[in-house]
Structure formats: C-alpha cells, structure tokens
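re the bet — no i am not wrong, look at it urself. input seq straight from the record:
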Amino acid sequence: MTPLLLLHGALGSAAQFDSLKTLLPEDREVYAPNFPGHGGAPAQGAFSIAGFGEFLQKYLSDNDLSQVDIFGYSMGGYVALHLARRHPDLVNRIFTLGTKFDWTPETAAREMAMLDPEKIEAKVPAFASILAERHAPADWKEVLRRTADMIHGLGAGSGLAPEDMTVITCPVVVGLGEHDNMVTPEESKAAANLLPNGTFNILPGCKHPIEQTDVVLLAKRLKEFFG
C-alpha cells in the first residue's frame, strides 16, 4: 500500500492531524512532517512553495519513500501540487482541502492583512497563544512575517501557472469545505478543470480551519480516494 503523507497548512503544524491519523487504516504508513519553520522545526531561510517542495523531496529521500499519496490541507495542497509538477515520479495521488489557487496582488493583499502579529495579539489573544505554543521555540510573529512574504510572492506570480496545472497528470481531488470563507468554489473548480485527472469535491458543513472540518467525514473521503 502506498504510504500517505499529510501536509499541514500555513501557520499550522503536523500535530493538527493527530485526530485524523487515528481514523486512517492501521495498515497504511502515515507520515506527517512539519514544514521548515513550523511546529518547532528549524527554519531554512525564507518561506516559499518551491522551498517547501524541495524540503519534501529531501524528506521522502531521507525516509526511503519512492512514491507517496498526499493529503494536503490549504498550503499543504499547493506544495503537494508543486511537488507533483517538479517530480511527478514521487507522487501517486493527491487530495487537497481548502487550497487557495486564485493568487493575484489583490487576493494576496487580503490574506496578508490577516497576518499582522500585533493585531492578532490585541484582538484574538487566544489565537496568539496557540501560535506561540505551536511554533515554540521559534517566534510565532516571525512565522507570520515569513508567511506574509511568501503570500506576497504568490500574488506576484511565484506560484503555479495554469500551464503547470495542465501537466500534473496524477489523480487529484480538489476538496473544499462547504462553508470555507477563504477559498471559493469557482477557483477550486477551475483548478480541478485544469488538472488532466482532477475532480472537485465538496465537504458538507465544513469551514476552512482544519479544526472546523468534520474529521470523520474527511477520513471517509480519504479512504475512498486512496483505498
């Protein structure tokens, strides 16, 4: 059975998949790395989709994984597609959830506006505390700043172009929570249509945060797709 790789989103960590892992088949190898600079893992320079893709390539090599299935939440789905574009031999199938594809200067500016550490600390101190604990010993404010820089780059065109999507030939499910307020059905459907073997999948009742996703439903969809 092909090993399964779980990839977290921006500002996230592998620990967010702890509940999901308990619902996956026991006979499947499951790996959940922290991206550099996340979840206490040391940073390796600036955050970027390409850099995280290179990290994954090395991670697979270090763990003797010749090919994997990938579930990528939010940014993790984007990194999974980038890996499939650059190293198609490493990726068998991909299931994304809540991955944003519509990157323009305007959409990037909206996302960056939500990453102001001082505003988060003042308005949602509980979330600031979660981020501080999640990324310790790293400075959570620096994680936000590096993430904002990465998003600025995506808005400036550093992400996957439509022509990149059209040559990713592995089967891909583009998943979206029914009540996701960060990613639109239109951009998700457009991405699925660009992918030669892409399909669009709605998860009823789910919102964007992975903590507000029906983990039982998600596990069911993953088992149906990955087998």
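see?? Residues 112 and 148 are 5 Å apart (CA to CA). told u. also Residues 140-158 form the longest helix (19 residues). so pay up
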